[in-house]
Amino acid sequence: MDRSGIIFKKCDLTLHKPDTNRACQAGTCQHTCKTPDKCGHAWTLRYWAAGRQREQSFRDDTDNHGRVQYGTGRRKAQWR
Are β-strands 5-9 and 52-58 bridged in parallel, bridged antiparallel, or unpaired? Predict the structure, then answer.
């Protein structure tokens, strides 16, 4: 497996095309979060394995009180 990959959130606004009828990144406009680092979407790791592109998602953890521990999903994606 190629360990190099891209870690991102699909709510990232970098490829957002609000002025066109075309879809954004993955076929539908998913880019709705104003603060992607603290939104509820999962972090996505996109990588190559066995000659094919793959994706795996990692959600941020919650503590015992139900509060989201922001950034834990990103760390999980980096260690994968």
Answer: unpaired
